[in-house]
Write a structure and sequence with these properties.
The protein has 505 residues and is of the alpha+beta class. The chain contains 12 helices and 28 strands. It has a 7-stranded antiparallel β-sheet. Strands 22, 23, 24, 25, 26, 27 and 28 form a 7-stranded antiparallel β-sheet that branches. The protein has a 6-stranded antiparallel barrel with strand order 8-9-10-13-12-11. A hairpin with a 2-residue loop joins strand 19 and strand 20. It is extended, with a radius of gyration of 33 Å. It starts with a helix and ends with a strand.
Length: 505
């Protein structure tokens, strides 16, 4: 529809007259006192925090960390040399050509030629990476991430005033991704250590570091989440502070200028910042630092169990009021847990009088306990709580368990219930698995199959009833309330797990 100029002007005049009339009516509706109060009331203002004072004090304590690595020099024309060594010569040992899996590592030597005299290739020092760190003492102790300095030949620390020092590694801890370095200097500016337990979602925090090598860069944001569990050994502080490659190892500061975390990871699909960054809580870091400073390594406790999550379905099936604790899937032989009487299928609710809200809490609690400590262990077994006593041992490298075929050579008598056809477990299998009783699943159908039970599994219990033989399995299955989820304790290989079977309606 086309409007002439005159019609458009007329429409605008009428519209403005209507707006003016409405405004006048609104003003007339106010009493003189209200109108005066409205005129005198200032518009609310929101002030943003000024971070300059915090940065001025903290900046001298933050350092740039660069590392180098020694790699073989490419010898043009030599047989068997990796053609991409020339790129690694210029771009460092981490360079990997796209689409070329299985390339020989730059640290590997060329294949031997028996017809030629073998000589070690010449080596060249190349840049390896850049990260951040900060002083925790005036005499040169520096905190950073383990992944910043791992596999480095040399480590160099550069302060904000341009001085560069060669650093010595005092100790590292891969589990927490913490590294403690030392430089030969005095009178440095350390950062004060804060208390991450006082953090709240929505609080302002700052990061200072060297993203992409741009040293002394400050970014700000808020705490997005606390105790973010990502499956790693420690929970993280989640923020929306801009953190990029090179920020790793730098401090996360509160508004008091105290360190509350070490910037460690980003969650990204592009490799750069996408609004989620993760920091290691400083309380956990300082526990590690105390051991690194004293011993150069971290000693952790162990009790010898493999654990998993307690789901809502399993909690209902085994009589727990809510999904909490750590479900024991297996117990190591000759371990503290075995000596204490812990059994596969137990749910550990407390360790050393501390509640286990999530299964991932248990490894941290046990790990920070001094080896030799005798601690109470509260477990849920067969519908009731029991308290055991466990003596914590020192953590050892995990042992590889051999898998065993459980198919018997002869066909014993079978029985069926809950969609499972079962037979007795061979005595040799019971001995090797250190179990008594149980039944071996020959065939799984219906609700049991849908729940994930399969041929070769061993059923150890139904709800609170231990299973000892096929006929007893049928009787126990016949007594359960089939209107509710049924908890079936299943052994598969080296793992034991509660499975919630929901009978068909």
């Amino acid at each position: 529809m086309n409007f002439s100029y005159e019609k458009t002007q007329m429409f605008l005049r009428r519209f403005l007259m209507m707006v003016g009339a409405a405004t006048a009516l609104a003003g007339a509706a106010l009493t003189p006192a209200q109108a005066q109060t409205q005129a005198q009331t200032p518009m609310p203002t929101v002030t943003m925090p000024d971070f300059s004072g915090i940065v001025e004090k903290a900046d001298p304590a933050v350092v740039n960390i660069r590392t180098t690595a020694t790699v073989p020099v490419r010898r043009p024309g030599s047989d068997g040399q990796d053609p991409y060594d020339l790129f690694r010569f210029f771009f460092g040992p981490d360079f990997q050509p796209p689409g070329m899996p299985g390339q020989r590592s730059p640290r590997e030597k060329a294949p031997k030629d028996n017809n030629k005299e073998q000589k070690d290739p010449e080596e060249r020092t190349v840049p390896r990476g850049v990260g951040s760190g900060f002083f925790i003492s005036a005499d040169g102790y520096v905190l950073t991430n383990n992944h910043v300095v791992a596999d480095a030949t040399d480590i160099y620390v550069t302060t904000t005033d341009g001085r560069e020092f060669k650093a010595k590694v005092i100790g590292t801890d891969d589990r927490t991704d913490v590294a403690l370095l030392k430089i030969d200097a005095k009178g440095l500016t350390p950062l004060p250590i804060g208390d991450d337990s006082k953090l709240k979602k929505g609080q302002w925090v700052l990061a200072i570091g060297s993203p992409f090598g741009l040293d002394s860069t400050v970014t700000a944001g808020i705490i997005s989440a606390i105790n973010r569990d990502t499956g790693d050994y420690l929970p993280f502080i989640q923020t929306d502070v801009a953190v990029n490659p090179g920020n790793s190892g730098g401090p996360l500061l509160n508004l008091a200028g105290e360190v509350v975390g070490i910037n460690s990871q980003i969650i990204s699909r592009s490799g750069g910042f996408m609004g989620i960054s993760l920091a290691i809580p400083i309380d956990e870091v300082m526990r590690v630092v105390d051991q690194l400073r004293s011993n150069g390594k971290v000693t952790r406790g162990r009790i010898g169990v493999q654990i998993g999550e307690v789901t809502n379905e399993v909690a209902t099936a085994i009589g727990l009021s809510k999904a909490e604790g750590a479900l024991v899937s297996s117990v190591e032989g000759d371990s503290p847990a075995e000596a204490a009487g812990v059994q596969p299928g137990d749910v550990i609710l407390k360790f050393n009088d501390r509640n286990i809200a999530r299964w991932s809490d248990l490894p941290r609690m046990v790990g920070e306990t001094k080896p030799g400590t005798v601690a109470p262990l509260q477990v849920w077994r067969k519908g009731k709580s029991q308290t055991l006593t466990v003596k914590v041992a020192e953590i050892q490298p995990p042992k590889s368990a051999a898998k065993e075929k459980t198919n018997p050579k002869t066909e014993p008598e079978s029985s069926s219930a809950l969609g499972l056809t079962v037979v007795p477990v061979p005595a040799e299998t019971q001995r090797k698995m250190k179990i008594t009783g149980g039944v071996l699943v020959r065939q799984a159908e219906g609700a049991a199959a849908r729940a994930g039970i399969m041929e070769g599994d061993i059923v150890l219990a139904i709800n609170d009833t231990d299973i000892t033989a096929p006929d007893q399995f049928v009787k126990a299955a016949g007594k359960v309330d089939k209107t509710k989820s049924i908890g079936v304790l299943v052994r598969r290989g080296d793992q034991t797990q509660w499975v919630a079977v929901q009978p068909a309606k």
